[in-house]
Amino acid sequence: MSDAEQRTQWTTLDKDLNRISQLELATSYVSRPLVAPGIALAFIVLAGLGAGVFFGGSAMSMVVIAAAAFGAYMAINIGANDVANNMGPAVGANALTMGGAIVIAAVAESAGALLAGGDVVSTISKGIIDPAAVASSNVFIWAMMAALISSALWVNLATWVGAPVSTTHSVVGGVLGAGVAAAGTAAVNWPTMGKIAASWVISPVLGGVIAALFLAFIKAKIIYQEDKIAAARRWVPVLVAIMAGAFASYLALKGLKRIVKIDLQTALLIGAGIGALAYVVTAPLIKRQSEGMENRNKSLKALFGLPLVISAALLSFAHGANDVANAVGPLAAIVHATEFGDFATKVAIPTWVMVIGAFGISFGLFLFGPKLIRMVGSQITKLNPMRAYCVSLSAAITVIVASWLGLPVSSTHIAVGAVFGVGFFREWHMERRLKKSAAGRPEAKRIAPEERRRRKLVRRSHFMTIVAAWVITVPAAALLSAVIYMLLNTFVG
């Protein structure tokens, strides 16, 4: 073989190897988006197999296996959507990296669900459907299955669109739709539904107002002071004490139901004691941390960083304790009805069901959570540690105020409403300062309407998408649930 032929052969081989390497790269690129759904599917299958181990000898074991699989699917969607509201502000403020937020949230959510999660859950989801109207346990099982499937599908769709929605409201819609399909509109407790509908407005407005008030306080008492560091030494320990007291009350009220039942007055007393202790501990720490700091806003951000991370972790723990039980409620109801052949207004949540909820949330957060975390943390409005701290503080305080007033509220709506509240307050504050400066300088150039719109600090497209998703969550989940119930009843029941 001549040298020219050898060179041609090696050139051909190089081209073929290059094509193979490009094919491998393309395959890797195409298959990458399939990794997360593949892991999620494996977890769903494992949840079903685990349920089969517990109910292998039961005549209705296939129903429980299917319910466990859909329960795992629901838990994954909660992790992908609901948990973002707790971690989004901290990530958006650069107080936490995405990886750090996911690890903290996964641990805190799982701990909240397993250590302090409610051991009893309302199977008719907050008394929406009259149990007497449900004809038999078979009808009840298919109604709960339809509620579970529809709420999971709706939360999945909302996550894909990029809208943080209330998991509890999705379950409420699912139970409502299946209940109406099974027993008619007369079975619905419409006053309860009216209260839940009112919470669509109350939750975000209350969360937004409280967050805006705290931000106004921080601006007036710390940011706009001549000596910012001295002002921070005075007020940051007070704000940390309020946070500690609010979360202690919140966790005592909502997160420790499994261990001990605490009324609102006792919870507030516990909060006051923890708040006072937090102030005593925090004041010298803030003083030491602030020594040598420059008198500028960047220094203030550093002082709020650690309290923000702690508040995000506490929010996740409280969410795991309070909301996971609502999400796995339909699964617990199906297990009870299958095991005992009847249905009750309240049932105990088996440990293995709560484990599915806790681990499913962690998987969902890890695999699909970053999209909604970015949305809440940075795409609605720009957050820094002070603004994000106001969001976390507002979330805890709003739940306590709502409990005191007896109003049903959504933690998702509160947190996202607080982000909007901070953004709209900043817009209002900026407009006011512009008007003041223009009044002092009559010759100042007027800002064109187009430029004014461009300077808006809250993205209106995200605002409209999220509000629309909130409004249609219950009706959409209800309609989907009614259709699924009729299909199940026709082809399986």
Automatic annotation (TrEMBL):
Alphabetized InterPro entries for the sequence: Phos_transporter (IPR001204)
Locations listed in the record: Membrane
Domain of life: Bacteria
Cell membrane as UniProt keyword: no
Annotated keywords: Membrane, Phosphate transport, Transmembrane, Transmembrane helix, Transport
Stretches that traverse the bilayer: 34-55, 62-80, 139-159, 171-190, 196-218, 230-252, 264-281, 302-321, 349-368, 388-405, 411-428, 463-488
Record membrane topology: Multi-pass membrane protein
Family assignment from sequence similarity: Belongs to the inorganic phosphate transporter (PiT) (TC 2.A.20) family.
Protein name, entry field: Phosphate transporter
